[in-house]
Fold each of these.
Amino acid sequence: MKHLGFVLVLALGGTASAGSYSDNGKTATHDCAKDPEVMVGGNENTITFTGTCTRIAAAGNRNKLTIASVKRIDVPGNENTLTADEADAISVLGNRNTVTYGKGITSKKPKVTALGKDNKVSSTK
């Protein structure tokens, strides 16, 4: 329930900031060294994350996220595709999402929670 609270706090945060992507159909690169917590609330975006993020929430739908390193991924949205080179925790609450990861940051593989329907979470190894 903690991660759902985080998503709601970010979603209700008000004005858009550097760590918030609420537009649709955009392509962007996000530097996690400058802003480590990110909310992707829009739809059909393509975003590349560089550096190490603390947390990325994919609350929108049909987004394509490429992530270098992240401590926690939350996916309450639907039909998103996320690829992370490194992740420590992955929580998929939405439906029909695909998440692939290379390895964990502090352990060999991330802790995975998949509660939605028809989600695919797998290692690239």
Note: Helices lie at 2-11.
Amino acid sequence: MKLAIAHDFVRHGGAEKVLEQMHALWPTAPVYTLLAEDNPQYLDWDIRSSRLQGWLPPSKYRWPLPFYPGMVDRLPQRIDWDIDLLISSSVSLMKNLRVPAHIPHLCCIYRPAMFAYDRQDEFLAGYPAVFRPLLRNFSAKFRSWDQAGSNNPDLYVACSKYVASKVKEYYRQQAKVVYPPVETAAFCEAGKKTERGDYYLTALRLESYKRAETVVEACTRLKLPLKVAGTGPMRRELENIAGPSVEFLGFVHGTEMPALVAGCRTFLFPSEEDFGIAPVEALAAGRPVIAYGAAGALETVSDGETGIHYPHQSTDALVQAIQREQEVDWDEERLRASAERFSTENFRTRFHQTVESLLADWKPPA
């Protein structure tokens, strides 16, 4: 079977964890993208970037936002359509790729574009205030374009039940749920070899909508040791509000994460994420998770059994959750077992079966 993959931006996030497993299933598939960050893991991949590559720093991928719909509309001219299937791996753009009528299109969707729907204010907070009115106007135009392309995929595969509900709400389409892959084995092994430590840990991109400031403020207030793994534009602001018990680690390589997670007391997850890989990694290491109780965390962390949910993205709510967590005697084996349904093996099996099922049942339009 010959296929191609279209992925919005090749970066270092959760979507790329899914992309890596797709590539492992079909290693010769070309990956079409708008912009790709350097990653030694992908040196032997056939990545075909747009003309932005080479003159726009990948870290500034948001800058040409208004131009992306047009670029996606023109992308079919550059794709080699001698394939049996197109997989779009999409947060906001590639789902709208127009595919020839004789080729099926499976969209692996991580969420409908946040800046066009329910979390616009959080997204726009990452831009200078002077540009926000223009971007709001663009968002309305983008939403119309996005809605017009909602029927492009022949099948949506959502990364959680939460995302499937959004696909139904915004696109009026049913989505099959296949949970994304998590490298549970390495974290499980590290957790068994490492004693639970005394520090709290969070790992996330330091952007405003991730709400990392609530974690920094809560641990500063309680004088608890906190390690913050991740980079982003909010780092300096977070350092300014952090107390002496908070340590900023910057970018942590994937090979170093299992030991770091295994050594923590508890993992803190303040974001509203569509799935959230990091909490599952912590559970695989046998470490409890304190998570904002919304979206994907409701499907991965069980309140009172594998972690603690808190109801508001506020410092006060997180402080109360930490105090509650400190009173629980956690069963490490139970935490590890809860993570196994999200393993890479389960993802590969279910995703491959989904592809085979689509190809078996699909018929081109008359």
Note: The two ends are 23 Å apart (CA to CA).
Amino acid sequence: MSSVTRAEIFTSNNLVTYEFAGAFDYAPGGAMPFFLFGVGGVREGEETHFAAVLGIGKRIPLPGFLGSNALGFRYDIRDQIFSQVINNSDPFIVHNITATLGLQIYF
């Protein structure tokens, strides 16, 4: 009879991500999406990794609220790209895909 044990890669199950990003919207309120670029970090257990952040999204204006098109609904998809090493193996590239939704106010 064989036994299977649970392998633990990290010392805890905590995952924390943070990022500093800027976006360029060529045509606000138009048909073109905005592009997002930035840097960030991913902390898994006790390991922290530097990450590059790339993304694409769209802002949908909500006319009639707060004047002209100051208020809008925004959604985007971001990819946090970083290098990972598990159990002294060769480093490999990891893609941490995230999606965000929110309200956005231009002032």
Note: The chain is about 0% helix and 60% strand.
Amino acid sequence: MKKQTLFLGMVLGILLVSATHSSMAYAGISTVSNPQEIPLEDRFRNPDNMRSGIIPITAKQQGDMLFIDFQEIVGVVEVTVTNNRGMNVFTETVNAATQPFLTISLQGLPSGSYVITFSSEKMKLRGEFEM
């Protein structure tokens, strides 16, 4: 009985220390900044393709990271990030049916204004953000 109690106490102690350490680490990360949504505007304005008026992509920025969520209906999309001088700093083609999320690291890029563009046959969305 003593061995079982001792073992149980050790396991609970390890779990408590682990949970405390994890929550402290997570709290440190989450206080850096909360993700900010990048407002996207439809530059193609084709009502036949976007009947609902709902933009099928969301883009959020947290520090030098961008988090993109695609709805499956957008198909193949070219994602481009351009700096304030019009130079591409990131380009990738994504098939939203097989890759519904995209994370973009902009680490090392200078502070300034940037534009993210999503282009396909059916749409062209654009959003501006600062770093």
Note: The radius of gyration is 22 Å.
